[in-house]
Amino acid sequence: MATAETLPLNAEAFRNDFPILSTVLHGDQPLAYLDNAATTQRPRQVIDKVVEVYERHYANVHRGIHWLSDQSTDLFEEAREKVRQFINAGSAPEVIFTTGCTMAINLVARSWGDANVRAGDEIIITEMEHHSNSVPWHQLAERTGAVVRHVPITEEGLLDLDAFDAMVSERTRLVAITAVSNVLGTINPVQEIVRRAHDAGAVALVDAAQSVPHEKTDVQAIDADFVAFSGHKMMGPSGVGVLYGRLALLEAMPPFLGGGSMIRRVTLDGFEPADPPAKFEAGTPPIVPAIGLGAAIDYLNKIGLDKIHEYERFLTTQAHAVLEEVGGVRFLGPAPEKKAGIVSFTLDGIHAHDVAQILDRHGVAIRAGHHCAMPLHKRLGIAASNRASFYFYNTPGEVETFAEAVRATKRIFRRR
Ligand code: PLP
């Protein structure tokens, strides 16, 4: 575990690349952006790439037999190849560009789900899922008569794997789990869960929205059938996400959206779908966001995901320590060594929205609310919480500022 003396990276060295991080708000408060689990900021390299494409290379892809269209298509397919390498997918057609993680999961629910799930089948998710990885399965259950079951969490905020084992059976058609909880920060043993799902003959989907941007991901090692994530949580433009799917499954699945690009042939009587990935990329895809995501991947590769992961764990440990000194803080989720760069908490007797509002006066941006995880908050016995979440460009100094702002919040409420 890194210490202040052995940090794996120097955040200050990157901050100049991010114009927005030098923002000063409310007159004289430097921005401390600690809402990275919601979305991250973009470095100049990504912004410049987006501008460059619009200024010099932009046309629709896979359509025109003209010079610009060729350029645009090459850049778009290069981005797909960068994603493929980044997650170690076996082949480029296994990488499907969607509009985001939510769309990727809905694609699986509509396409694979409608074709394969029947009344009485069981879909196993967990109590810690983001609504993106629960609502599509409830919708699928409504359409098919399947049943959604939830792996409970322990008091510590970990998945109860014994309960999971007791739940998996020959009725299980799908296990869909998050790699990292967007509230608790818990890092789940996805590889092990996927193995157990496969042993039971079930298909496995991993919601990797909070893991792919922060730690090395090898989809072949995880061995999941589907992995979904969003570009905007890893410095890419908003409007692009990825569905990784095992090729044999993608080939067998019917297309979800119909339109241009996803067909081999259309007649007056019907259509024949194209092969993956085109089969699942109906209409004009997120061309420039995908190319921007490729630039974000280049940036991440230069730093190294291992260093990023290690550094964020240092910030998490530091945040726990300084908040403990403040006192009156209830942490949600496990101890720092078992979680990613996400620190959620409640402050004794002070509403989460009040905390976030006062922190904002200090320039500190954190999230307040249920973080799209209402069932989890119900399980924890609270309606809302606060969440600070880190990326490699955050500094130990910002964590100190954050703790000072929490201390100030307590002072204000003590006076009332
Ligand atoms: N899954 C998890 C764990 C998330 O944290 C999020 C976003 O916060 C999503 C899914 C949905 O991502 P998006 O809104 O980019 O589709």
Question: Could you give the distance between the termini?
Answer: 41 Å
Rg from C-alpha positions? 22 Å
Low-confidence spans: none
Which CATH architecture of the largest domain would you pick? 3-Layer(aba) Sandwich
When the domains are counted, the total is 2
Beta-strand residue percentage: 15-25%
Main sheet attributes: strand count, strand direction, barrel closure: 7 strands, mixed
Classified by CATH, the class of the largest domain is Alpha Beta
Kindly state the number of beta strands: 17
| Overall body shape | globular
Describe the structure.
The protein is of the alpha/beta class and 416 residues long. Helix 3 (67-87) packs across helix 10, helix 11 packs parallel to helix 14 and helix 12 (352-361) packs across helix 14. Helix 7 links the parallel strand 7 and strand 8 (203-207). It folds into 2 domains: 12-30 and 304-415, Aspartate Aminotransferase, domain 1; 47-302, Type I PLP-dependent aspartate aminotransferase-like (Major domain) (Aspartate Aminotransferase, domain 2), CATH 3.40.640.10. The chain contains 14 helices and 17 strands. The chain has a 7-stranded mixed sheet, sandwiched between helices. It starts with 11 loop residues before the first helix and ends with a helix. It binds pyridoxal-5'-phosphate.
